[in-house]
Design a protein that fits this description.
- It is a single chain.
- The protein has 678 residues and is α/β, with parallel strands linked by helices.
- Helix content is 40%, strand content 19%.
- The strands form 4 sheets. The protein has a 7-stranded parallel β-sheet with strand order 10-11-9-12-13-8-14, with helices on both faces.
- It is globular, with a radius of gyration of 30 Å.
Length: 678
């Protein structure tokens, strides 16, 4: 057996089971070993039958009798009796007719399961049973529970992993010997065995620490190597023009916050170097990242070089163009601006392409249209990427390649990312954080609502519409599903338009619509063609509808705090008071998480809370989280992250040759390709 052997070489895996394993990402033996448990149940304490109490329990006993029968409605029930020196108790299985034949009467078994009362009779329901041995798999130990699918249960996965134990025990080491010794880590082979078959909690924690450390170490090493590679590139030096900066700030209708000033200064210092800037500006909702980006662009335009700003949607690109036009107009620079999107007419595109190529245009704002081959910008000094995690690596690379050299890169994100997460995911980036809100902006009033309070909620909404305002209603799913009782946009749209708001114009927006349809509906909402827009989270980032004052989030308990905070930031973007109503799925008491968002408008604090409770996926979406393979390390474990980052730096400082470590090299090269810069 080898790591690349097909799972169908394992005992008991036929074509059907191989398909089921493939559906959970397991095709070969190596992937099975990497298929780690999602949780554990502790059945390690063996209890005498006379001392058994309701709840999870393990006993050791002899099975004396077993019989099966069919009950009402065709349900099959298997009953057996287990005995030890202190007494006997009943074992009950439902719809497992094979059990009678599989049990060996008179033999000594470990039996684990839930001891409970059922129809006035105490017994262990659907227990796992296996003959007493030195290495039980499903009983008498801390038992791993895996992610399951129909026809693929944890007991079967445990059986397969048990078969691979000789291979697990011979897994090669991936980290340098000096590093393992220095950090007090257990060997990699021991870590995998302990994660699948832990003997005690301490062993499990040591295994998690070892593999979690390696995860963060790999990502950081990939980032540092990217950063070193970037440092060897040459970029154009953009001098700082103090007079121009002061002139721009003077004509702003508001005062810059300290965070904005600090970030702008960091950018100016970066751009003066011939080493390319690679900075992430991480700003809370409404913190004023666009002004910062324009201040960076000013210096580039002054040098008669070009700036390209790429936004993920046409609507966002248009909004940026309008805002930036207003900001540049008092300086007489607005004519240097051009919008380039897919929906421009061929003639308009041709004119834009020619003006960009000639250098007549210095600030190009657009969508993916910017990376088309026809767009020729050789004097590109600065690339600004808005909501950078929405673009693939290839798209970002293509835009940078337009420069003919390495341009300065400024990435923007409106998703507050806790510093520990940002430094781990983006170790190669310099990070600026804008947490302060501009003065004078009214805080959004946030209220938790039970489903029973809809009449009052709808009365409040009606009043806001009467006052001329507009409303977002966000639901977690597109269509009704029997699996979970969640509000869907389709059902909510039907209810509101036909029953509660018959006299109002109600729009519908979700991810299954084409990009053009989505843009058109948002444009119509912006033009006040709808009073209410029922949508999924496609409206989460960047959309600016100054007239919208109400955000209703249905099934609020299903969303991450960072996500709700983003949605809440879609309203109250003018001088009108904004309201956010979080409607619960039922009338039970709200969680501590939701109580926190009712009282806090600090996106970074809420993201920290999400990180602790729900993991990185809640903040940054499952795609990015999954790609960066953070399966074991807890990003709230600051000590582990700091140690792994320091070790990655030491690995580079020692001049270690990564090629010597074959497995580590493979992972680091994959990560270099999906982290932000490469």
């Amino acid at each position: 057996m080898r790591l690349d052997s097909s799972v169908s070489t394992l005992k008991g895996v036929g074509d059907e089971l191989a398909k089921k394993l493939l559906s959970v990402g397991v095709n070969c033996v190596g992937e099975l070993i990497e298929y780690l448990p999602r949780k554990y149940e502790d059945y390690s304490q063996i209890t005498a039958i006379s001392r058994v109490r309701p709840g999870p329990v393990t006993i050791q006993g002899v099975i004396k009798q077993a019989a099966g029968r069919y009950a009402r409605r065709g349900m099959h029930i298997t009953e057996a009796v287990a005995m030890d020196d202190t007494g006997s108790l009943k074992l009950i299985w439902f719809n497992q007719p094979y059990r009678v034949a599989s049990l060996k009467l008179g033999q000594n078994y470990y039996i684990s399961g839930d001891f409970q009362l059922r129809r006035q009779r105490l017994g262990i329901l659907n227990p796992s049973v296996e003959l007493v041995s030195d290495f039980p798999v499903n009983t008498a130990r801390i038992v791993p529970i895996y992610r399951e699918t129909k026809g693929l249960k944890s007991a079967f996965i445990r059986k397969l992993v048990r078969e691979t134990l000789p291979l697990i025990r011979s897994l090669p080491e991936t980290l340098p010997v000096w590093l393992i010794k220095q950090e007090g880590l257990i060997p990699r082979a021991d870590a995998y065995e302990s994660l699948h078959f832990p003997e005690n909690d301490a062993q499990l924690q040591n295994a998690r620490r070892r593999l979690g450390f390696e995860e963060v170490f790999r990502i950081t090493l990939a980032s540092l190597m990217n950063k070193l590679e970037l440092a060897s590139e040459k970029s154009l030096s953009i001098p700082f023009d103090e007079k121009l900066a002061k002139e721009f700030v003077k004509q702003l209708p508001f005062k810059l916050t300290n965070d904005q000033r600090k970030t702008v200064w960091q950018i100016y210092l970066d751009m003066q170097k011939t080493q390319p800037m690679n900075r992430l500006t991480n700003g809370d909702v409404g913190s004023g990242k666009t002004v910062v980006a324009v201040m960076a662009a000013l210096m580039v335009i002054k040098q008669n070089l070009q700036v390209a700003l790429m936004a993920p949607t046409e609507l966002l690109a248009r909004q940026h163009a309008e805002t930036i036009h207003e900001l540049l107009d008092p300086l007489g620079m607005a004519d240097k601006l051009s919008l380039l999107t897919g929906s421009l007419k061929p003639k308009q595109k041709k004119v834009a392409h020619e003006r960009i190529k000639s250098g007549d245009i210095n600030f190009i704002i657009g969508t993916h249209a910017l990376i088309q081959d026809k767009v020729d910008m050789h004097r590109l000094g600065l690339v600004i990427i808005d909501e950078q995690h929405r673009f693939g690596v290839e798209q970002r690379k293509k835009l940078q390649a337009k420069a003919g050299h390495m341009p300065h890169v400024l990435s923007l994100t409106a998703t507050p990312i806790p510093r520990s997460l940002a430094l781990t995911l983006y170790g190669e980036l310099d990070i600026s954080i804008i947490a302060e809100k501009p003065p004078g902006r009214l805080p959004i009033i946030t209220k938790l609502c039970s489903p029973n309070s809809r009449p009052q909620l709808y009365a409040d909404i009606n009043q806001q519409i009467k006052n001329g305002r507009q409303v977002f209603v966000v639901c977690p799913t597109i269509s009704e599903s029997g699996a979970l009782p969640l509000q869907s946009v389709e059902a909510m749209h039907a209810q509101l338009s036909r029953k509660y708001f018959k006299d109002r114009k109600v729009g519908l927006l979700h991810g299954k619509l084409s990009s053009d349809q989505k843009d058109k509906i948002m444009q119509q909402f912006l033009a006040k063609k709808y009073d209410i827009l029922v949508a999924t989270t496609v409206i989460e980032v960047g959309v600016n509808v100054p007239n919208a004052s109400v955000m209703v989030v249905e099934n609020a308990e299903r969303f991450g705090l960072a996500q709700i905070h983003q949605l809440r930031g879609r309203v109250g973007r003018s001088n009108h008071q904004g309201y956010c109503y979080l409607v619960m799925g039922d009338s039970s008491a709200p969680s501590r998480r939701l109580r926190a968002i009712e009282t806090s408008d600090d996106g970074f604090k809420l993201a920290e809370m999400d990180l602790e409770v729900r993991g990185p996926g809640a903040i940054y979406g499952t795609l990015q989280h999954g790609a960066l393979d953070l399966r074991i390390a807890k990003l709230s474990d600051i000590k582990l992250i700091a140690a792994a980052r320091q070790a990655a730096q030491e690995f580079i400082d020692r001049g270690e040759d990564l090629i010597q470590y074959q497995e580590l090299n493979k992972h680091v090269m994959q990560l270099r390709a999906i982290t932000n810069l490469n």
